[in-house]
Specification:
alpha+beta; 7 strands; globular; 201 residues; single chain; 7 helices; seven-stranded antiparallel beta sheet
């Protein structure tokens, strides 16, 4: 008998106490958790992740330095095939390399921001965690949507330069939203490698 995914209650549950979390994560995966669409995914579907496979999470470098486990416990991840494409773009595209150098970013971090549409307000993608899945886990999978810089000048990150982010239009690039990792990262994943993105590309 196949075991239930350990985060099943974040997708479906008969317990009324779980309904708020189910609704929140369903909306967050679509970029609607705060009301108007911002980031998130289209063509969203629930999938089963593959035990034994490697998954990849880009993290904000400052949050990672304060506590990498907390930074790595966020919901947004990528699978191996997508990570390879982002890494190859960082290695091959001179425009990405030149601009990354001009803003003192690693080329892999900047490529991730382009492909996944991540404003600096959400993170600089300066750190990376590679982890092998140990148990059955479900995720939302979809294609990235545009993300918008914060119009509140008191909350906006100056590095975004009042620029919105539109993900690279490649139908083979998907994102994963995995709810329920907070507090259980250690049991769900085995961390294979972690550190600055500059060391990975």
């Amino acid at each position: 008998m196949t075991a239930e995914p350990v985060n099943k209650k974040f997708f479906v549950s008969d317990d009324p106490a779980d309904q708020a979390d189910i609704t929140y994560h369903n909306m967050a995966a679509r970029g609607l958790a705060s009301g108007a669409q911002n980031g998130g995914m289209s063509h969203v579907q629930r999938i089963h992740l593959n035990v034994g496979q490697h998954y990849f999470r880009f993290c904000d470098s400052q949050r990672f330095a304060k506590g990498w486990k907390d930074a790595a416990s966020g919901c947004w991840w990528a699978d191996y095939e997508v990570f390879v494409k982002v890494k190859q773009a960082a290695q091959r595209h001179g425009t990405i390399q030149r601009y990354a150098k001009s803003i003192r970013s690693s080329r892999l971090a900047y490529a991730a921001k382009l492909y996944f549409a991540i404003p600096y307000e959400w993170g600089d993608c300066g750190s990376l965690v590679i982890a092998r899945l140990n148990v059955r886990l479900d995720a939302y999978k979809g294609r990235g949507l545009p993300a918008y810089y914060n119009r509140d000048p008191h909350k906006a990150d100056k590095r975004d330069r009042k620029t919105d982010y539109v993900p690279i239009q490649d139908p083979t690039i998907s994102q994963l939203y995995i709810p329920g990792l907070r507090g259980r990262l250690k049991t769900v994943f085995t961390v294979i490698q972690k550190g600055d993105t500059a060391s990975f590309a």
